[in-house]
Write a structure and sequence with these properties.
heterodimer; A: alpha/beta; eight-stranded mixed β-sheet; 13 strands; B: alpha+beta; five-stranded mixed β-sheet; 29% strand; globular; disordered C terminus
C-alpha cells in the first residue's frame, strides 16, 4: 500500500491511514450531497464504500454533482458516481447498489458497516434509514441542504443507552409531507406534483465535508451523543446542539430497549416460535395487502395479484376495479397483525418483508430478520 | 426550578436576520413558538422548522413544553430549517 499518497493527512489525529482503510461505510443517495460525501471519503482513503441510489442522472444534477457528466444523463446515478470516483484512488473499493436502499440494504449486512451516511431527498427515506440503523445498531450521519444552509445530524445508534433518532425532533409538517405521498392506507398516489428545492453546489460541498468529518470522528469517540450542526454558508454562522431522545417519538419510543435481532433463517414461523413464542401480534416492516375485493363485483379474479404483496408495490390506481371499472375496490392493508392471523394467511409462504417486530415481554422486543438467511 | 407564569426569552432565525424578545408561557410548546415565529416574520409556510436552544446547546422536541424542555428565562432560541438533501419536497425515496 502506498502510504506516501496519504502523507499529508496521516498525522492528523484520529485519521490514521490504517484506520480509514479498515472502514466500510454505506452512502445512501448519490445526488449533490452524496457526490460530495463520496468525494471526501475517497480522497481520505476510506477502505470500502457502498453507494445506494435508485435514481437516474438528469441534466440538472450536473451543476451540483462533482462526479457526474453529460454523458451520464440517463444512467444510474450510483453507477456513474462510483465509476468516476474509482478513478480517484484505486485502493478504495467502491460498490454501486442500484435500487431503493430500503430494499437493497439488508439489516445483517448493515450491522457490519462502520457508519451509514444518508443524503436522500425526502423525509420518508430518512425515517426508514433511521429505523434500519437503529435496528442494526449502526451510527448514522444525516446530511441536508437548501440554497443557504447545510445541516448534518449524527445519531449514535451503536452506543448503549437511549439515543435520539431522525424522528425525535421532526415537526408535524414533515409527517404531512410524507402523508401527501399516499392516498388512504399506504397506497402511493399515482399523480404527485414534485416541488423542487433550490440548492447549490456550495451548500452541498459544506454538507459533504461536515458529514464525512462527523462519520470519520464517530469511531474515535469525539461525538458522544446524537447531535446536529447547522451552518449558514452565506454569513458563516452556525450552531451545534445535542439531540436528546424524545420519549414520545413515533419512530423510536416503542423500540426501547432495542429489539434483539435474530435471523429467520428462511423460516419465519420457526423463528417466531423460537424467539417470540408468547407474542400475540407483530409489527411488519412494510404494510401488506391482506384483502382485495370490489364493492360492486365482490371478490375479483385479479385479487390474487395483490393479496400477500407489499402495499408499496402499488399505487392508488388499484382501487379501480379491473372488472367493472368502478372506483369501488376495498383494499385491506395492515402494518400490524395478530400472529395467528399471519400464520393463517401466509403460513406456507415467505413474507415479502424485511423484518417482523414482536413484543416478547415488557419492555423487551425481538426483531426477526427475514432477509438473514443461510 | 419552577418558571414564572410568563417569562422572556430571545428568538432568532438561523440566518440571524430576524431577532425578537418574546414573552412566553412555560406551558407553550416548541411547535407553538415556531408557528408564532413563522406568522410574525412571515417565514415560508411550506418549509419545515425545528427549534433549538442555542444558550443550552440542545434541540427542543416539538410537542414538549418550554418547561419540560428546561428552557430558562433569558435563553436564546433559534428557528432552524429542517433540511433534506436537496431536490424534492415530496419525491422518490432513495
Amino acid at each position: 500500500m502506498d502510504h506516501e499518497r496519504y502523507l499529508r493527512q496521516q498525522d492528523v489525529e484520529g485519521l490514521g491511514v490504517e484506520r480509514l482503510q479498515s472502514m466500510h461505510v454505506s452512502v445512501v443517495g448519490a445526488g449533490a450531497v452524496g457526490n460530495e460525501i463520496v468525494k471526501n471519503l475517497v480522497l481520505m482513503g476510506v477502505g470500502q464504500i457502498d453507494v445506494h441510489d435508485f435514481d437516474r442522472v438528469e441534466i440538472h444534477n450536473l451543476t451540483r454533482s462533482v462526479f457526474l457528466r453529460e454523458a451520464d444523463v440517463g444512467a444510474s446515478k450510483a453507477g456513474a458516481l462510483v465509476a468516476r470516483a474509482a478513478e480517484v484512488d484505486p485502493h478504495v473499493r467502491l460498490c454501486a447498489v442500484e435500487g431503493d436502499a430500503w430494499r437493497t440494504l439488508r439489516l445483517a449486512e448493515l450491522a457490519r458497516r462502520d457508519v451509514l451516511l444518508c443524503a436522500v431527498d425526502n423525509f420518508e427515506a430518512r425515517m426508514r434509514m433511521s429505523q434500519l440503523c437503529m435496528l442494526a445498531g449502526v451510527d448514522m450521519v444525516n446530511a441536508g441542504i437548501d440554497s443557504r444552509h447545510a445541516s448534518v445530524e449524527v445519531f449514535r445508534f451503536s452506543r448503549p443507552g437511549p439515543c435520539a433518532c431522525v424522528e425525535c425532533h421532526l415537526p408535524d409538517s414533515a409527517y404531512r409531507k410524507v402523508a401527501e405521498r399516499y392516498s388512504c392506507g399506504w397506497l402511493r398516489r399515482a399523480m404527485l406534483a414534485e416541488d423542487r428545492i433550490a440548492t447549490t453546489a456550495l451548500t452541498a460541498s459544506v454538507a459533504g465535508a461536515l458529514a464525512v468529518q462527523a462519520a470519520l470522528r464517530i469511531g474515535g469517540g469525539e461525538v458522544p451523543t446524537s447531535q446536529r450542526v447547522l451552518v449558514d454558508t452565506r454569513n458563516g454562522t452556525g450552531t451545534a446542539v445535542a439531540l436528546r431522545p424524545n420519549p414520545e417519538c413515533p419512530g423510536c419510543a416503542a423500540l426501547w430497549p432495542r429489539p434483539r435481532r435474530v435471523p429467520a433463517n428462511g423460516d419465519w414461523q420457526a423463528a417466531l416460535a423460537a424467539h417470540a413464542g408468547g407474542a400475540e401480534a407483530v409489527i411488519l416492516s412494510d404494510a401488506l395487502i391482506f384483502d382485495y375485493a370490489c364493492g360492486e363485483c365482490g371478490t375479483v379474479a385479479h385479487a390474487a395479484r395483490h393479496i400477500g404483496r407489499r402495499a408499496d408495490e402499488f399505487d392508488d390506481r388499484i382501487m379501480r376495479c379491473e372488472s367493472c371499472g368502478q372506483l369501488a375496490v376495498r383494499v385491506d392493508i395492515r402494518a400490524e397483525v395478530g400472529v395467528d392471523e399471519l400464520r393463517e394467511r401466509f403460513g406456507g409462504s415467505p413474507l415479502p418483508l424485511k423484518y417482523l417486530l414482536a413484543k416478547v415481554g415488557e419492555p423487551d422486543a425481538v426483531c426477526i430478520d427475514l432477509e438473514d438467511t443461510p | 426550578m419552577t418558571l414564572p407564569q410568563e417569562f422572556k426569552l430571545s428568538i432568532r432565525t438561523a440566518d440571524q436576520t430576524r431577532r425578537s424578545e418574546l414573552a412566553v408561557s412555560p406551558q407553550q410548546t416548541g411547535a407553538e413558538i415556531i408557528q408564532s415565529a413563522v406568522d410574525h416574520w412571515v417565514l415560508p409556510a411550506d418549509a419545515d422548522y425545528t427549534l433549538v436552544n442555542v444558550t443550552q446547546g440542545r434541540a427542543l422536541t416539538p410537542h414538549a413544553t418550554l418547561d419540560q424542555s428546561g428552557v430558562r428565562a433569558g435563553d436564546e432560541l433559534e428557528v432552524q430549517p429542517v433540511l433534506v438533501a436537496g431536490a424534492r419536497r415530496c419525491g422518490a425515496s432513495a
